[in-house]
Design brief:
With 293 residues, the protein is of the alpha/beta class. The chain folds into two domains: 4-44 and 169-292, Rossmann fold (3-Layer(aba) Sandwich); 49-166, 3-Layer(aba) Sandwich (Calcium-transporting ATPase, cytoplasmic domain N). It contains 13 helices and 13 strands. The mean pLDDT is 91. The structure holds adenosine-5'-diphosphate (ADP) and magnesium ion. Magnesium ion is lined by residues 38, 40-42, 237-239, 242.
């Protein structure tokens, strides 16, 4: 039977915009000593915009944007939304395949177009010119970088466009991180994005431990590694790429407004995508379990 205090705690949580899937969720939250935070859409708004497009001499930036938007239209990733918004209406690619945390591939007018993290281009066997490699390096000092390319008769595809994507840190994130540390919790930033932007966000928020460039399976592995150290881990995320890590964590917290896969994998969903609710969830759980003992 579920102790009444837990039921009351669950009801109070709901009033505060914290939806708990089962009463066990609050029980584990009480023992949490480590909180792992995703970056994009969790600590940042996730309302990304295209800040710049750099192309090779043979490629028109507007055309590149239209082609890449064609493959991104079906994706709910914030970078995809940014690219589609910048391009406006246009064609939709065929045979689109989306690889969580990596990128997308599709066919536009018979041409296979890919877009994704720089490592994804290498996985596609794409050539990267020194000029565009410089654009990647410069972009990664400032923000999120997506590279895109295709083959025009050549054997190997070529990277033809580098997109720099900007995001904004949520106004509530710094306070939430400070409060989590105030509760004695270790805070870790875990992101699929590049190390440059991850370090910048971590520094702004006072987070000392950063794991960047981590693929979805790597996010899961990091949670398991922390648990193997004897830690009790809460993971907070919003994306398809966070789902496995959310499911493996002792407490999986999904940001409201994120991907359905994240909400299904989590134990708790924050109705408002406000990181301060993470602190509320931990506090409430401690108080609830304190009443029972
Ligand atoms: P995060 O952990 O910050 O939420 P992700 O793991 O979702 O980031 O993505 C990591 C990187 O993979 C992105 O910064 C981007 O470069 C690339 N990426 C992911 N999905 C897409 C997509 N749909 N289109 C282009 N690039 C993508
Ligand atoms: Mg995210």
């Amino acid at each position: 039977a579920t102790p009444i205090a837990v039921l009351v705690g669950t009801g109070r949580a709901a009033q505060l915009g914290i939806l708990v899937t089962g009463p066990e969720a609050l029980e584990s939250a009480e023992k949490i000593d480590t909180v792992v935070l995703d970056k994009t859409g969790t600590l940042t708004e996730g309302r990304m915009t295209v800040a710049s497009v750099v192309t090779d001499e043979a490629t028109d930036a507007a055309q590149a944007l239209a082609l890449v938007a064609a493959v991104e239209r079906g994706s709910e990733h914030p970078v995809a939304r940014a690219i589609v918004a910048a391009a406006g209406d246009g064609p939709v690619a065929d045979d689109v395949r989306s690889l969580a945390g990596r990128g997308v591939i599709g066919t536009v007018d018979g041409v296979a177009v890919f877009a994704g993290r720089p490592a994804f281009a290498a996985e596609q066997g794409a050539e990267l010119s020194p000029t565009l490699a410089d654009a990647v390096a410069a972009g990664e000092r400032r923000g999120t970088v997506v590279v895109a390319g295709w083959a025009l008769g050549e054997e190997r595809p070529r990277v033809r466009a580098v997109f720099e994507i900007a995001d904004t840190v949520r106004a509530e994130s710094a306070g939430a991180v400070a409060d989590l540390r105030g509760l004695g919790l270790d805070v870790v930033l875990l992101t699929g994005d590049n190390a440059g932007v991850a370090e910048a966000v971590a520094q702004e928020l006072g987070i000392g431990t950063v794991r960047a460039g981590v693929l979805p399976e790597g996010k899961l592995a990091e949670i398991e590694r922390l648990q193997a150290e004897g830690r009790v881990v809460a993971m907070v995320g919003d994306g398809v790429n966070d789902a496995a890590a959310l499911a493996a964590a002792d407490l999986g917290i999904a940001m409201g407004g994120g991907a359905d896969a994240a909400m299904h994998a989590g134990d708790v969903t924050l109705v408002r995508s406000d990181p301060r609710a993470i602190v509320t969830a931990v506090r409430l759980s401690r108080r609830t379990m304190g009443v029972i003992r």
